Amino acid sequence: MQLQNIATVIRSKNAGPCLVTFDLMFKDTDDFLRAKKAVSHIRSEVARLYGKSENEVRVIDYAPSNAVKITIPRDIVSGNPGDTDVYGAQQHSLLLEIEI
Name one Pfam family in it (predicted). Predict the structure, then answer.
């Protein structure tokens, strides 16, 4: 099943000027646990899709809110010349089709 079919929220935003964070939120514990079991796979897919090493991809699962947070370094510091998404809000689309 793809993330876009299991997560109720998939979004990205800045986590400071040098990082982008992705929030994955799930409607219930079963969907969250499915994602939690796939954290290693999610990490490797994010690394592949965004051109990062797996060591650069941080994944944190947070059971009280049925959520997973993923953080990666930005290629260009937010607001610097060449930055096409100063808020980091348009970076999540690559996550939609990750299979878990």
Answer: DUF4387
Task: For the chain, give every domain's residue range.
Answer: 3-75
Q: What is the distance, to the nearest Å, from the Cα of residue 36 to the centroid of all Cα atoms in its chain?
A: 13
Name the residue among 10, 66, 63, 70 with its Cα closest to residue 39: 70
Pair 18, 74: CB distance under 8 Å: yes
**What confidence tens digit (pLDDT) does each residue in 61-87 have?**
999 999 999 999 999 999 999 999 999
As a whole number of Å, the end-to-end CA separation of the chain is 6
| Chain segment 24-52, per-residue pLDDT in tens | 999 999 999 999 999 999 999 999 999 99
Give bridge partners of residue 59 from the DSSP assignment.
70
